[in-house]
Design a protein that fits this description.
heterodimer, A: 6-stranded mixed sheet, 5-stranded antiparallel sheet, B: about 110 residues, mainly beta, 7-stranded mixed sheet, 4-stranded antiparallel sheet
Chain lengths: ~120, ~110
């Protein structure tokens, strides 16, 4: 089966740095996505890692270790608007069926940024 | 705006009603998806369409019936639903074989079954 774990809730202070962890046990790993979802809105793409290492994009960075089944999303210089749910999703390999982009999601981490 | 629109945004229906959810993508993508998002649970993939052909049915009850008339439109037909089907239903699209292959989500339809 597929299993993705991430903390349910986190709280951080405006201007600080926060790291949201995600661990996974899946078959046929083919990349890991991070999405941001504000309440009542669509999830929006933040980052994609398929090779080990750190991907940096402005205030957001994402790290992947395939051997450890581990990823984290790092948010720097936190702003109030960063309060949202952060979804970790693993892309499964679909080579035989060509079934498109099948993603398995974690439950999401609700981040609250306080003054 | 992600380029994926969904209607209606909110829907309340009784267990004997029949209704349909609509999704439209304006991104030129060739794959579309239906997900169910319930409180405290992960996003659950329901159906996948590639090039208008259904390639995934994730053990979804037959009271949910998808339809993909073309690569830009996706419907989810609902009939004789149960209260536990109340959830946020999200549509997404992607470009198969793109570099990132990320999915673009619509804002969802909040469904309440009475």
């Amino acid at each position: 089966g597929q299993n993705i774990d991430q903390p349910t809730e986190m709280t951080a202070t405006e201007g600080a740095i926060v790291q949201i962890n995600c661990t996974y046990q899946t078959s046929g790993f083919n990349g890991l996505f991070w999405y941001q979802q504000h309440a009542g809105e669509a999830p929006t793409f933040l980052s994609y890692n398929v090779l080990d290492g750190l991907e940096e994009k402005g205030r957001f960075s994402s790290f992947l270790s395939r051997s450890k089944g581990y990823s984290y999303l790092l948010l720097k210089e936190l702003q109030m608007k960063d309060s949202a749910s952060y979804l970790c999703a693993v892309r499964l390999r679909d080579g035989l069926t060509g079934g498109g982009n099948k993603l398995t999601f974690g439950t999401g981490t609700q981040l609250k940024v306080e003054l | 705006e992600t380029g994926v629109t969904q209607t209606p945004r909110h829907l309340v229906m009784g267990m004997t009603n029949k209704k349909s959810l609509k999704c439209e993508q304006h991104l030129g993508h060739n794959a579309m998806y239906w997900y169910k998002q319930s409180a405290k649970k992960p996003l659950e993939l329901m159906f996948v369409y590639n090039f208008k052909e259904q390639t995934e049915n994730n053990s979804v009850p037959s009271r949910f019936s998808p339809e993909c008339p073309n690569s830009s439109h996706l419907f989810l037909h609902l009939h004789t639903l149960q209260p536990e089907d109340s959830a946020l239903y999200l549509c997404a699209s992607s470009q198969v074989r793109a570099v990132f292959h990320e999915q673009f989500f619509g804002p969802g339809t909040r469904l309440t079954v009475l």
